[in-house]
């Protein structure tokens, strides 16, 4: 788990991990067999973990739109149309969930943004990451080939083809959002909304992630600052950071890589999970307004 998961609802509960679940969210039979082999203590612990996770991750604001596109129907995409359907949305936000998915606080945040006239497409990235080839360069290409049509078709479903795009995410999703902005070819990208990113990442969920081990260094992993530097120069990057997030140690390098097109927005007394994310709503709106602001003056 990331540092403050123990004192909050299971915002990033990496120990559950994608390896233990089917895409539907059910525990894999192999996981159940493994826990059964541990005996009564293991079964009791599993029951507690699943119960707590279910209480923290269930529910939330429901998506307002059901996709018509067959591709999107087959994907874990959650669509929130802008509240006023008589006028176009201010922007469309494609939001990558964290390593437990597009969970309850993400959905609440999406619904809140929709009420503020933003169209939001939430995406549970775990099944896609789990389907990618193992090799680094091939993996990268496969991710781009898969995510570009998902983003484009989500925009179309939301009636947001012609409005600015913000690529967003939380935790692992924030790191993937930055990487996607650096490597994907999407039109009208205003910038990246990165909530609680770390310093290194990869397009997968590893055992080290699940066990809260060191940040990834294996072939195919990447420095998030390098990805920040690769984001096109006309796109802004907003980092939302809880003041108690221990991963804030990554920020000086991220800020240096982004120069005058990156800005940090601090959420007082919040940790890595941003304590339900609704507490971060005010700073999120400030960050979105900044991303959509007038072009920077050239020096």
Would you write up a description of this structure?
- This protein has 299 residues and is of the alpha/beta class.
- It has a single domain, classed as Alpha/Beta hydrolase fold, catalytic domain (Rossmann fold).
- It is 38% helix and 15% strand.
- The protein contains 11 helices and 9 strands.
- The chain has helices spanning 29-37, 40-57, 70-73, 104-115, 126-131, 136-157, 172-183, 207-210, 224-230, 251-258, 281-291; strands at 77-80, 92-96, 119-123, 165-170, 189-195, 200-201, 222-223, 236-242, 262-267.
- The protein has a 7-stranded mixed sheet with strand order 1-3-2-4-5-8-9, sandwiched between helices. Strands 6-7 form a two-stranded antiparallel sheet.
- The longest helix has 22 residues, at 136-157.
- The protein is globular, with a radius of gyration of 18 Å.
Helix content: 25-40%
How is the CATH topology named? Answer: Rossmann fold
Write down the domain tally: 1
Main pleated sheet:
7 strands, mixed
Rounded to the nearest angstrom, the distance between the terminal CA atoms is 43 Å
Weakly predicted, low-confidence segments: 1-60
Which percent band covers the strand fraction? 5-15%
Count of helix runs: 11
Structural class of the secondary elements?
alpha/beta
Task: Give the overall average pLDDT.
Answer: 82
Strand order of the largest sheet: 1-3-2-4-5-8-9
Overall outline = globular
Rg computed from alpha carbons, rounded to a whole number of angstroms:
18 Å
Q: Per CATH, which architecture?
A: 3-Layer(aba) Sandwich
Q: What is the H level of CATH, i.e. the homologous superfamily? A: Alpha/Beta hydrolase fold, catalytic domain
- Total strands: 9
| Name of the level-1 CATH class | Alpha Beta
Topology order in helix (H) and strand (E) letters:
HHHEEHEHHEHEEHEHEHEH
